[in-house]
């Protein structure tokens, strides 16, 4: 039997154990013993870059921010998509993760850190996005947690609430996109992101090409333009939660019968799909609602 080797490990600022392993030529990163990523399951990490950078082919001097270095597969795909004049910032909280890539994972993607387009920022991506001196990005790609409700670092909860959404909006160019990686479906996160003023599209992603089911998700967001004179919503300083929450469940309350008349939402231009596709989706949703009404009668 081929042994499962532990190559390196480090305690993160909140006390979590992050470890690097090798088995039969493949590499794995674990968080408190739970697999976080590997060299055999990279499809969704590549898709994160494909979706977030979908509008950047041919764009002069694009700027991309990647939250989380990991094993470098998202970085690899970004560099394949953008031109030679691009600026790609990789925000990585753990300097040890950067050292692992340079010294232990050179044959994986560690050599990409020598690319002149790449700059590693040893800083929390939340703080990078909130830096008032920072220049805005064309795309922000966030792959730092298991899901928006299960975090690798406790302070990462800020990324998935209003403070994080406002940081993303501040750090994006007017037509920029943000892409979030998630190990599973998080419908409540999609609702929160929508309420914060983003148009959101959800994409299924397989862990690897031969997987039978697509369990991972990529959430792509585009900030809606604010009306002239509309101020950013006030947000209290985020408070550290007492403990890591269970996977999020919807907290929406049912409407009281007859209290208020429902108004038909105004149609908005969707940044991810064509008008023909949008019309088709509207027809499909209308038929679904009609069939639900017929079933109740």
What's a quick, concise take on this entry?
With 297 residues, the protein is of the alpha/beta class.
Detail the topology: elements first, then pairings:
Blueprint: E1 5-11, E2 17-23, E3 26-31, E4 34-38, H1 43-52, E5 63-67, H2 73-81, E6 87-91, H3 95-103, E7 118-121, H4 125-130, E8 137-142, H5 162-171, E9 172-182, H6 187-195, E10 198-205, E11 216-223, H7 275-296
Helix pairs in contact: 1-2
Report on the structure:
Helix 5 links the parallel strand 8 (137-142) and strand 9 (172-182). The protein has a seven-stranded mixed sheet, sandwiched between helices. It has a four-stranded antiparallel sheet with strand order 1-2-3-4, with no helix packed on it. The protein has seven helices and eleven strands. The protein has 297 residues and is α/β, with parallel strands linked by helices. Helix 1 (43-52) runs parallel beside helix 2 (73-81).
Largest sheet: 7 strands, mixed
* Average pLDDT reading: 84
Radius of gyration: 21 Å
CATH superfamily of the domain at 40-223: Vaccinia Virus protein VP39
| Shape-level CATH architecture of the domain at 40-223 | 3-Layer(aba) Sandwich
Secondary structure tally, helices: 7
Distance between the termini: 63 Å
The helix content is 25-40%
Quick one: CATH class of the domain at 40-223? Alpha Beta
Order of adjacent strands in the largest pleated sheet: 7-6-5-8-9-11-10
Give the strand tally: 11
Give the overall form. globular
Structural class: alpha/beta
Secondary-structure element order, as H and E? EEEEHEHEHEHEHEHEEH
